[in-house]
Amino acid sequence: MANKGNKKRRQFSLEEKMKVVEAVDSGKRKGDVAKEFGITPSTLSTFLKDRAKFEEKVREASVGPQRKRMRNALYDDIDKAVFAWFQEIHAKNILVTGSVIRKKALNLANMLGYDNFQASVGWLNRFRDRHGIALKAVCKEDSDRLMNGLGIDKVNEWHAGEIIKLIADYSPDDIFNADETGVFFQLLPQHTLAAKGDHCRGGKKAKQRLTALFCCNASGTEKMRPLIVGRSASPRCLKNIRSLPCDYRANQWAWMTRDLFNEWLMQVDARMKQAERRILLLIDNCSAHNMLPRLERIQVGYLPSNCTAVLQPLNLGIIHTIKVLYRSHLLKQILLKINSSEDQEKVDIKQAINMIAAAWWSVEQSTVVRCWQKAGIIPMEFTDSDEEIAASEPDTALEKLWHTVAIATCVPNEVNFQDFVTADDDLIVSQELTETEIIQDMVAGENTGEAGSEDEGEVSLPEQSKIAITEAISSAQKLRQFLSTCVGVPDAIFGQLNGIDEYLMKRVTQTLIDSKITDFLQTK
C-alpha cells in the first residue's frame, strides 16, 4: 500500500491562484471549482481568504505571475534597488544578461553599505523568480536590431506584422492610444526662447509645469477624461473645488509615474468591465509604462521603441492641436488684459486645467482620424479638399492674433507662433532614475510620488468666494441676454446654454425639495 505521507505537495503560481478565484467569482459552485482545478475545499477556502494579498501583489507588479511564493528577499533593499535599475533598463529596451545584473547588484550593494552580500547564481535565479523576469543573452543580431531601430525597415515590419495581429479582433471604436505631454502652463510669448528645448528635470521650473495624459480611439468617437499631474497636491486655487473637467494628481516632479499610470489603467479597466467591453490600448515603453497591473478588459500593445514619432497617433498631430488651442486661448486672455490696461496675471493651475481640458474636447473627430491614418493603423480614406481649406482658415486668424500680441509684448522677431506652441515639446514626462537616486530612495525612504507643499510655487491670486446657485442662475440668464443681442450665434451655443440652465434648475429645485422635506419632518 502506498505511503500517503510521501505524496508530493502541489504548489500553485500566483496566476493559477487568481484563475481559481475568478472561477468562483464567475458564479460557479465552489465544489465544482475545486474539482476542476484538482484542489481540496480547504485549499480553495485558503485561496479565497488570501485573495486580497494576491490582488495586491499583481496590482503592484512586485512579483511575477508564475511566482509560487510571496516571501521577501533576504536583502530586501538591495533587491528593490536592483529591480528599480532593471525597470529603467527595460524601459529603454536594452537587453541585459544575468552576469550584468549580478555585477550591478554588487555595485548597488556596496553603495548601500553591504560588504558581505554575494550576488551568486542562486541569488540571481531567486531575483528572476521574484519579479517574473525572463533574461535573454545579447547576441549580435539583437544588438544590430536595436542599433538600427530608427530605420524605416522596423516601421514597415511592425505595419506588416505585429499591428495586423493586434488589431485583428478589434473595431476602430475599441482601439485606443494613450500618451503624455508636458506643458509649461504659465509660459508667456516673450519667454519662448528661454523655454525651448528645456527638459525640466527639476528645480524652479518644475513648479511651472504640468504633465497631461490623453487617450482616444481610432474612430475619433471617444476621448477619455484627461489625467493632469501637477506639483502641488492641494493648490490654493482648487480650495472648495469639487468638480474638474479632468482627473488631477500630484507629485514633486509633476510628471507621470508607474503608480499614477497604473491607477489610471485600473480605472479604465473597471469602466470597460462595467460596460462589458474589451479594448486594445497602444502605448510607448517609457519608464512609467513598463510594469503594468493585471488587466481584465484591456489588451496592451507596445509601440516599437524609438518609433513613436511616426507610429503614435497622439504624437502625429493630436497633442500638437491641443497645444495650439491652449496657447491660442492664452493669447486671447493676454490681448484682453492689454486692451483693458490690466496687469497680466500668471495663469494658475485651475485656469490651466480648464483650458487644457477645453482644448482636448475641442479637437475634432476628423483630426483624430487623420492622425490614426497617418500612423498607418487604420486605412487611409479620401479627404475632401474643402475640408483641408477649412482646416487652414483658423491658422490665418491665429497668426494675426499672434502678431498683435507679439508686438504688444515685445517678442523677438525670430520667434513665431509655432515656436510658442512647441516650446515645451522636449519636457521629460516620466520618471528617470540614476543609480544615485535609486540608492537615495532606498536609504532615505523618499518617494517621487510625494507632492510638493500646498503653497510652494503657487501663484498668489485672491481666494475665490463661494458662489451661490442663485447667482449662477442669474449669470446664465445674463449670458443668454447678451447672446440674444449678437448676430449669427450658432444654434449649438444656445443648446449648450440650455444644458447649463437645465442643470442649474435641477440643482436648485432638488435643494428646495430636500429643505421642504426636512422642515416637514422637524414639525412632526
Structural summary, described in words:
The protein is an alpha/beta fold and 524 residues long. The protein contains 21 helices and six strands. The chain has a six-stranded mixed beta sheet with strand order 4-3-2-1-5-6, with helices on both faces. α5 crosses α6, α14 crosses α15 and α20 packs antiparallel against α21. The termini are far apart. It is found in: Nucleus.
Rounded average pLDDT:
79
Distance between the termini: 81 Å
Low-confidence stretches: 61-68, 136-151, 382-393
Question: Compute the gyration radius: what is it?
Answer: 28 Å
Which short descriptors sum up this protein?
524 residues, alpha/beta, single chain
Question: What is the topology?
Answer:
Elements lengths: L13 H12 L4 H8 L3 H9 L1 H10 L15 H16 L6 H14 L9 H11 L8 H8 L4 H9 L1 H6 L7 E10 L7 H4 L13 E9 L9 E4 L16 E4 L7 H17 L4 E5 L14 E5 L5 H4 L6 H22 L9 H14 L2 H10 L10 H24 L8 H5 L13 H10 L24 H16 L6 H33 L1
Parallel strand pairs: 1-5, 3-4, 5-6
Antiparallel strand pairs: 1-2, 2-3
Subcellular location: Nucleus
InterPro entries: CenT-Element_Derived, DDE_SF_endonuclease_dom, Homeodomain-like_sf, HTH_CenpB_DNA-bd_dom, HTH_Psq
GO molecular function, one term: DNA binding
Short summary:
Keywords: DNA-binding, Nucleus. Residues 66-137 form the HTH CENPB-type domain. With 524 residues, the chain is α/β, with parallel strands linked by helices.
